[in-house]
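Quick question about two entries, pasted in order.
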Amino acid sequence: MGAISLLRILLWKLGFEWANLKRILRPQDDRRIYYFTFGANLSPKILNERSIEIFESFDFVLKDAELRFTQSGFYKDHAFASADPAPGGKVYGKMYLIRESDAERMDYYEGVPFLKAHDKVFDALDGKPFYYYRSRKPTEGLKPTQEYLDYMTTAYHDMDCVPDDYIKAMEATEVLTTFELQTLTGKFIHDINSWPKIMHPALVKYEAICRRMIEITWNWSLLVWLIKT
């Protein structure tokens, strides 16, 4: 169990660096794809830190989905945003045209390969494909950090498509104020009930340590600084 989890984390980081290296070696790759974002990537600061080049950007409303804080994060009750299925619902965000090589890099930032945190969902707009991320295992009762929420609401104020009452409701979202070790399992311990109960506390702690390791290394890279946008 321990070796497999550590291998997944190692492969995730190695895959991320490989994706960065391909981006560096092929800076003029013209293949592009639309990416719909509704979370922290609404912030130019985050895009700059991740060296994601934007060729086109416009406000977009994803239908039959709802923004919910159901993506379990690094701490107890910690959440990231997810565009969960919801007939008649709407998710407000931005559509970015980015390089396919940057889309591959974004997959690693979103924990798709090996960590399996999100599903990558494809759709089409006017016959052109786009994608977005959705929590693979939605969890209710979670809260975003104030910093994360601010990335979103700051962007909303500059987006004509977002209703004022929606912005106010989002700004009133309860945020995480204490940062305790994660008590949920599911990312690395998939079925805790299949283990003897006497082992549950140790398994919960093990999962928390794995998630903490991911948080520490999340934006760590030897190569990203070499990517020119």
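Here is the second entry:
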Amino acid sequence: MSWQVGRVKITRIVEMDLPIPASFMAGATPEALRRLPWLYPHFVSADDSTLNLSVHALLVEAPGLRLVVDTCVGNDRPREFTGGEALSTPFLAQLSEAGWSRDGVDAVVCTHLDVDHIGWNTMLEAGRWVPTFPRARYLIGRQEYEFWKGVDEAEQVAAMADSIKPIFDAGLVQLVEQDHVLSPEVRLTPSNGHTPGHVSVLIESDGARAVITGDMTHHPCQMAHPDWTLADIDSKLAIDTRSRLFAEWADQPILVIGTHFAAPTAGHIHRDGDAFRFEV
């Protein structure tokens, strides 16, 4: 699945589908979901019990830049996120099928440092975690990194050890501000709340525009209800951020690509009464 935004091509590489109980999203009751018919059939199960999500990376090919946005969970590392199992997925084969090589990636952006966004920063090779993209600059928000390096929760400590420390040790990390510009077509923008230094990725080329959301929104139902939350560290700020950015993007020719949105993943936001809806 891919999209063309001016001279920029964006390709989705899926690591895993992620159906979750709707009850995980505060407010997403079956009755409330049924009042949003535009969510069906792509984003909610027919029995209203499940929100359809996805874990995927986005490959951004702009003039002079090959960028990977968010690197999923990764293989060979047990995570609570995956029920304690270590994944073994064909992620690298999919990368190759898309015409990309590990050595051909110029930059990696982690919109934030949750475990499902940093895993393929590294790979297990002869018992050691090594950078998956050895020629890339790994761009990590300075504010985001400063927060997470002080967190002592066991899963995050393990993720920092196997997915972040090796790329620092290799000298590949560039700590950046939240408005960092990667190229004339690609830049970061602050979208704090889900995490303290969260960023989204803005793309603009030949008059066409797109945004890669990161986890400032997990599911399109939040467009109708920005106050519905899922694992946001600062819920109030996350709600404010969603409300502000949805209003900014609504009724504009901006392709919104959800980092956790199930297929078809991308669409446009439109005003719908006092809130918004997502059209694919």
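Reply: The helical segments are 30-34, 91-97, 142-148, 154-169, 221-224, 235-249. The first strand starts at residue 2 and ends at 5. Hope that helps.
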